[in-house]
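Re: the request from the purification team.
They wanted to know what the chain is likely to look like in 3D before they choose a buffer screen. I agreed to run a prediction and write the result into the notebook, where they can find it.
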Amino acid sequence: VRSLDDLARSVNVFSERLYEWYSLHYPEIKNVNIENTITKYGRRENIPGFQSSTGVDLTEDDEKSLKEFAQTIDFLEKQKKGMEKYLSSAMRDVAPNVSALVDPLLAARLVAIAGSLERLARMPASTIQLLGAEKALFRHMNKRGNSPKYGILYNCSIIQKAPNEHKGKIARILSSKLMLAARIDFYSGRDDAENLKREMMEEIKKVGA
């Protein structure tokens, strides 16, 4: 998970630097798929629809370096997607029940923050609910902030789509089912994902009833 985060940060930073660099040549360009644009066209004059620009001209060496940098970013992006695919597949094998309740990548982050699947399985639902919100919880305990309702579980689509007044309740339901799912994954390994998900959705429906 940390390697994936490092890759994502690297891709974002390098993309920003590439955009800043190419903007000297073509400041009017928008930062949309700029790696592909530079790799395919190079100079601004080769881009379809180009009319004029206030930017500086590129030398052949400039164009070559820009293309190589863009290709490097594209390679890193493919590596990131490959790692996401691998991690998702691994989580479905190691923790199928947890990965069925939340996105496998989010499941991997929960396990990573907990320290292991065993530690996640031993945690109460209230702790799982706040995984990733340790700083906010610390501020609250020192009377410098509100009590957090959730940690990285906020990234779960079920919570994000819910009305604000229901997010906390849904987070509690989700964390309770994740606690059960983690214990099943670690202690028995049986696939009970369909039952867990059905029960969870039934409880969530009652929240908005």
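For the purification team: The domain at 2-86 is CATH 1.10.287.4070 (Helix Hairpins).
Please add any questions underneath this entry.
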